[in-house]
Amino acid sequence: MPERAAGVGLADRDRGLVWHPYAPLDGPEPYAVSAASGVRLTLTDRAGTTTEVIDAMASWWCAIHGYRHPVLDAAAHAQVDRFSHVMFGGLTHEPAVALAERLTAIAPGPMAHVFFADSGSVSVEVALKLTLQYQAAVGRPGRQRFLTVRGGYHGDTFAAMSVCDPVDGMHSAFPGALARHVFAPRPPAARLVVGGDGAERWETDESALAEWETTFRELAAAHADEIAGIIVEPVLQGAGGMYVYHPDCLRTMRSVADELGLLLVADEIATGFGRTGRLFASEWADAAPDVLCVGKALTGGYLTLAAVLTTLAVGAAVTRSEFRALLHGPTFMANPLACAVAGASLDLLETRWKDDVARVGAALATGLAPAREHPAVRDVRSLGAVFVVQLHGPVDVPAVTRAAVRRGVWVRPFRDLVYTMPPYVSSDEDVATIAAAVIGAVDEVHGS
């Protein structure tokens, strides 16, 4: 183990010791967080000087209620005083059962069963396993592949990676190790437009939409005997490019699944719990999935927890199968502490999410409107409390991040995107600061 000098800063101690997501060990120095409260992070430099910034990322979608929320803190403390963890094999507990009841009640469509997982990626693994087990149980064991669309992202574990975009994903880094699935073209882009009367309508290239539907149906039919299910991020593709597509595409997928005996798996890990302006993005299409994955915002960003929900029909088929059980069992499955906090997070969500998401989205639209005129900007798009500024070329991530921090805002751009999805509790002033920082940072680093 290398020796480290006493008194060096936290970021210095971290660099070269700890891997960060998609970053080399000798990559840019990370920012050291010393505190977090409300929608703000406190960053501390080597000299001990602190800088307060608004977290415009909600810690990668999950901290929807902000930090140190008294209701979530109280739920965590109360559960710790009872017990923080017990195995879920052969045991059960109130936080897990109560959370499962809540999730099946609010989920899109008639969900009846819940499997708790450790993380979003693991929930996708479980959903894919479940789909294969279902097909075997109903007499179609030869269906071993999945149909999805290009541009998607479903996680970093092996099965999840295999259904991510084959070009922009990580397929090339693991040749031969990933299962080969069927990829349809990315759906045509769309925009949600809100009229002066408040009416919502979706706009897209109608001819491109019709062509996509024809292609998707033909591809599904050509591989019908080998496809077990369709997996997709409903309406908004997240890490694959913050890309919005028309709900009619999801309706097509639901129709194709019904016609061919496939399961429709909705990956709502990023889009669930209000972020797109609906409690679940599937609701934009009124297309209920057979299997639903949720995570990220489930605990309000306090603890890692995900869940896989499915219908009575799917549960019954698995129960009648050779194995009778869903063949997965994480050590920390249904962790009581995480489940208790998730229940409290849903309590908070129910009271005001719709108004808050609409308010944050409207404030972002106003604040970031000038970005449309910037010469470095290719596109500006939004959905719910998500706003994306897409550049003509790759973002200089370290430089834009530094420029935003100097303006009091934390952002984490990627590829050619500078985007924000603030906590729902962000004030109008917070959102205005975020918008100004994004525009200012883009102009400082990528201005003409």
From TrEMBL:
Gene Ontology MF terms in the entry: adenosylmethionine-8-amino-7-oxononanoate transaminase activity; pyridoxal phosphate binding
A cellular-component GO term for this protein: cytoplasm
Cofactor: pyridoxal 5'-phosphate
Compartments, as annotated in UniProt: Cytoplasm
Residues given in the record as pyridoxal 5'-phosphate binding sites: G120, S121, D267, P330, T331
Domain of life: Bacteria
Alphabetic keyword roster: Aminotransferase, Biotin biosynthesis, Cytoplasm, Pyridoxal phosphate, S-adenosyl-L-methionine, Transferase
Enzyme class: transferase
PROSITE patterns xrefs: AA_TRANSFER_CLASS_3
Marked site (Participates in the substrate recognition with KAPA and in a stacking interaction with the adenine ring of SAM) residue numbers: Y22
Modified residues (N6-(pyridoxal phosphate)lysine): K296
A single BP term in Gene Ontology: biotin biosynthetic process
Pathway(s) of this molecule: Cofactor biosynthesis; biotin biosynthesis; 7,8-diaminononanoate from 8-amino-7-oxononanoate (SAM route): step 1/1
Catalytic activity, EC: 2.6.1.62
Catalysed reactions listed for this entry: (8S)-8-amino-7-oxononanoate + S-adenosyl-L-methionine = S-adenosyl-4-methylsulfanyl-2-oxobutanoate + (7R,8S)-7,8-diammoniononanoate
Positions that bind substrate: W60, Y153, K296, G329, R412
Keyword Flavoprotein among record annotations: no
Oligomer status and interactors: Homodimer.
Family note: Belongs to the class-III pyridoxal-phosphate-dependent aminotransferase family. BioA subfamily.
Function, as annotated: Catalyzes the transfer of the alpha-amino group from S-adenosyl-L-methionine (SAM) to 7-keto-8-aminopelargonic acid (KAPA) to form 7,8-diaminopelargonic acid (DAPA). It is the only aminotransferase known to utilize SAM as an amino donor.
NCBIfam families: bioA, PRK05964.1
Protein name per UniProt: Adenosylmethionine-8-amino-7-oxononanoate aminotransferase
Organism: Intrasporangium oryzae NRRL B-24470
Phylogenetic placement of the source organism: Bacteria, Bacillati, Actinomycetota, Actinomycetes, Micrococcales
